[in-house]
Amino acid sequence: MTQDGGGDADGGDATVRTDGPDVAACERCPDLVASRSRIVNGVGPDDAELVFLGEAPGANEDAEGEPFVGRSGSVLDEALRDAGLARADVRITNCVRCRPPENRDPRSGELANCRGHLERELDAVDPELLVTLGKVPSEHLLDRSVAVTNEAGDVVDARVGDRSYRTVISVHPAATLYDGSQRETFFETIARAADIAGVGEGGGGQSSLGEF
Ligand code: URA
């Protein structure tokens, strides 16, 4: 475990302690420190080819200490299974690691405060492909407004720190719960991402990123 005394990614904040790709302590966001019961770090292999990026933990994630374990997580698990993947095959993380009060969207300052943690995690995992789950992570990584329903399945480049990652834009799994027409979009996007990364049913271990 390291006390962060001035590394670029964590900005020299003495409240931050990291443990590999995990954040063991951080008190940068007063509202989130007050509303969280724990820091929710990413889960999954630390050398995963595919990384899914959500917005922030909700109540279930805050209680269990793991991203996407509520209803959205069940939809994600189902789409992964459909694509020939198990949850344990991929890494799942969030833009912000602490639950915002009343499940509000994370604020821009909170996203910025947590950005270094994400940079460090992605740098360590070095995935073949990222998948942004919903508007907040898509706009956070691409630094532009994103119409996720229209752009779902698109492969773009996202700059995180000093690296660029091939990224598939996706609707959030929760969107399928409010609007049944988004289900097909979501499932197709996840299958496409598995295929592009060369994991899952169709991949045969061979990434097809060169085609994009
Ligand atoms: N929604 C997210 O964006 N992240 C989670 O971890 C759970 C729900």
Work out the count of structural domains.
1
Q: Biggest β-sheet, characterized?
A: 5 strands, mixed
Q: Helical amount among residues, as a percent range? A: 25-40%
Uncertain segments are 4-9
Q: Which term fits the overall shape?
A: globular
What's the tally of helices?
8
Domain Uracil-DNA glycosylase-like: 41-191
GO molecular function: 4 iron, 4 sulfur cluster binding; metal ion binding; uracil DNA N-glycosylase activity
EC number: 3.2.2.27
InterPro entries: UDG_Type-4/5 (IPR051536), Ura-DNA_glyco_family4 (IPR005273), Uracil-DNA_glycosylase-like (IPR005122), Uracil-DNA_glycosylase-like_sf (IPR036895)
Topology of helices and strands:
Layout: E1 2-3, E2 17-19, E3 22-25, H1 30-35, E4 50-54, H2 59-64, H3 71-82, E5 91-94, H4 108-125, E6 129-133, H5 135-142, H6 148-151, E7 155-160, E8 163-170, H7 175-178, H8 181-197
Parallel strand pairs: 4-5, 4-6, 6-8
Antiparallel strand pairs: 1-2, 2-3, 7-8
Short characterization:
This is Type-4 uracil-DNA glycosylase. This protein is an alpha/beta fold.
How would you characterize this protein structure?
Belongs to the uracil-DNA glycosylase (UDG) superfamily. Type 4 (UDGa) family. It holds the Pfam family UDG. Keywords: 4Fe-4S, DNA damage, DNA repair, Hydrolase, Iron, Iron-sulfur, Metal-binding. With 212 residues, the protein is of the alpha/beta class. The chain has one domain: Uracil-DNA glycosylase-like domain (Uracil-DNA Glycosylase, subunit E, 3-Layer(aba) Sandwich), CATH 3.40.470. Strands 5-4-6-8-7 form a 5-stranded mixed sheet. A 3-stranded antiparallel sheet has the order 1-2-3, with no helix packed on it. Strand 7 and strand 8 form a beta hairpin. About 3% of the residues have low confidence. Bound molecules: uracil (URA). The site of uracil (URA) has 11 residues, from loops. The site of uracil has 11 residues, from loops.
